[in-house]
Amino acid sequence: MRMKINGYLSPADQGVKKMKPGGMILTMKKISLFILAVASLMSCNGEAGEDNQGQERYEQAVADFYMSLAASQTDQSRFAFNKMNDVAVAFPEEAAAWANLGVYAMRQGNLELAADRLSRARDLRPQNPDILFLSSMVESRRGSISESISLLRSAAEAAPDRPRILFALANELEREDDQANAEEIREVLRRLHDLKPNNQVVLLELIRVAVKEERFDDAEPYLNRLSELSARWSEENREQLSSVVNQFNRENESDLLLELSFLRSGLGSEPEYQADLLEV
């Protein structure tokens, strides 16, 4: 039986522009605005209030912290690093400073330094999900997938309602061993769907993973929901969705995965999809 979408039957064959299949990628854009809770920085105010000199040190550290964050959004990377380093030197117990130094190092491609700075931050705030998440990104880029997964599991335990953490965990589990980790991947994606049932990126990923495992019955409700959310897509992307449905009805796994990758590439231009992507 053919699947009906938005009131019409999928056409038999559609011309498809070939694009390279995409994948779940942890981008630097997702951490470019990373700011650990300001309350963390304020924790050093306790000792700062002992005398005027201590208060001045504290106020200077706060000023340096914010100047660093502001500079990090421009091309003043060296100034940003130096100002944040001043904070870390003045208040070495401040996890936010070490974490942001790790971010700056990661941006520069210095993964060893990034890992060291984030390790310092974890020592100070071992259960902070933001620090754990950033640490996992560094380990992933260093090729330490098992360590990245371990950090993400800890982050998901500390913050079970963070879609971005769950999405990254599913990605890393698949990179490590999609067959051995299949059950955990399914569980993580189910948790992600519970948090974001209408997120198009999540729905597309649930479809892809289910199809990859030839679980077409599991994929069908997600495909139906994605179809319902496609009303404002461009005509080209709606036609590509029809191609996906056509292959789905044939239960042709390899061709369907290819069509899904084409759809994902095309959806990158859709505003709703872009907004959903920022959530994960």
Explain the overall architecture:
Helix 5 packs parallel to helix 7, helix 10 (182-195) packs antiparallel against helix 11 (200-212) and helix 13 packs antiparallel against helix 14. With 280 residues, this protein is mainly α. The two termini are 34 Å apart. The chain contains 15 helices and two strands. The chain has helices at residues 38-42, 45-48, 52-72, 77-90, 95-107, 111-124, 129-141, 145-158, 163-177, 182-195, 200-212, 216-228, 235-250, 253-267, 271-279; strands spanning 4-5, 8-9. Strands 1-2 form a two-stranded antiparallel sheet.
Counted by DSSP, the helix tally is 15
Please tally the β strands and state the result.
2
* Shape annotation: elongated
Oligomer, anyone?
single chain
Instruction: Summarize model confidence as the mean pLDDT.
Output: 81
Rg, Å, rounded: 22 Å
Strand order of the largest sheet: 1-2
Q: What is the helical fraction, as a range of percent?
A: 55-70%
- The SS-based structural class is mainly alpha
Low-confidence stretches: 1-49
- What is the rounded distance between the termini? 34 Å
Order of helices and strands: EEHHHHHHHHHHHHHHH
For the largest beta-sheet, the strand count, sense and barrel status come to: 2 strands, antiparallel
Roughly what fraction of the amino acids lie in strands?
under 5%
